[in-house]
Amino acid sequence: MILNKRLNITFITTVFLTSFAIIFGSIGSYSFEKSFAHNFSPDESAHFLTIVDKIKVELELAGNSTSSNNQSSAIVHANNALLHYDPNTQDEISERNERIANELDDTLNELLEQVKSQTDKSQLDNTVETIDAIIEEAITTRIDQEQLNNLTIQALVLANIVDAALQNYGNAFNFGIDLTNMSNMMMHTTTSDNKTTHGGNNHGSNDINRHTNIVNFTNYQSALAFSNNAFDRFHNEIKPSLIQSQSETAEESNNTTANQTHLEKLENGLVELNNAIKNKETPMKVMEVVHTQIHPNLQVLFNLKID
User: Fold this and answer.
1) pLDDT computed for residue 68 by the predictor
2) End of a domain among 120, 145, 170?
3) Would you say 285 and 276 are in contact if contact means Cβ atoms under 8 Å apart?
4) 51 in a domain, yes or no?
5) 162 and 91, same structural domain?
6) 93 with 130, same domain?
7) How far apart are CA 287 and CA 162, in angstroms?
8) Do 121 and 186 fall within a single domain?
């Protein structure tokens, strides 16, 4: 009898300890997984979507260059698409789905090799379509729908794409300064004024505007494509969403008219940027459009901090 009681107690104790270990192990495993999960911030999401757009733009340019039998440009653009898929972006996708991350890397490399070897156009188009499908899957995997529809994130992407247009435009003319840095614009304007006033000549202005010929056509192609991308993103996604948001809160807000004014100025700035690049205006002119028309209105409309 005593032996049976001892056996029962031992059995109950064993069951209890085993159950406790399972429960504790489950909680510990959950906590471990959560501690290594990456909760992406809105800025990180904007950066990721910017990278995606850059890849898409360069893919399209690679295809267009192949169609026009410009293999050298096609190679540069295909290589740019691959370079934009940096290790950090690949790691971000891998956190959610390693297969997608590896497939995107493999297929981008495959496209570059196809362009270099002048693979049949139809096969190259199939590869581009495959990459586009993988990218869409990566976006779904990496970005929550709520963030994907977030206007602030979309505005940050727009600002980043405009900067990409500026960077490529400066490189196209071998301008030698960072067009995305507003202080460079102010510095050159001040230098020009000082030289004109004190030197009795216009060397300062000539220094600023001497880069009037494109020296890198692939960078120019990218600049124009990024400018087009920025306008399309604004016209197709940001503007309609912002107007709808404003109409829903019109009764509660006294700033609707002011916001509409800034929206129109932003749209006009994007149109002017596109036209300036198409017309091959000086880099300083393009820089001025971005820093005096596009960035300020983006900041007001979406309360952005743009470095």
Assistant:
1) 85
2) 145
3) yes
4) yes
5) no
6) yes
7) 10
8) no
- The residue type found at 114 is Q
- The Cα–Cα gap between 146 and 150 comes to 6
Q: Which of 166, 176, 261, 247 is nearest to 211 (CA)?
A: 176
Check residue 184 and give its pLDDT: 77
CA separation (Å) from 196 to 53, 182, 183, 190, 207?
Answer: 42, 22, 20, 10, 11
> What are the residues whose beta carbons fall under 8 Å from the beta carbon of 137, sequence distance 6 or more?
97, 100
pLDDT value of position 255: 66
Q: What is the value of pTM for the model shown?
A: 0.79
Shared domain check, 137 and 209? no
CA angle 178/191/292 to nearest 5° reads 55
Residue-number span of the structural domain to which 103 is assigned: 40-145
Using the structure block, give the residue that is written with the tokens 């909760």.
39
258-290: pLDDT as tens digits: 888 999 999 999 999 999 999 999 999 999 999
* Domain-embedded: residue 6: no
pLDDT of residue 165: 97
Convert 196-212 into a string of H (helix), E (strand) and C (coil).
HHHHCCCHHHHHHHCCC
Following DSSP, what letter does each residue of 52-67 receive, concatenated?
A: HHHHHHHHHHHHHHHH
Listed as ranges, residues in the chain with pLDDT below 50 are 1-40, 190-209
Compute the radius of gyration of the chain from its Cα atoms: 27
Instruction: State the sign of the Cα–Cα–Cα–Cα dihedral 86, 90, 93, 96.
Output: negative
The domain tally of the chain equals 2
Distance CA 65, CA 75 (A): 9
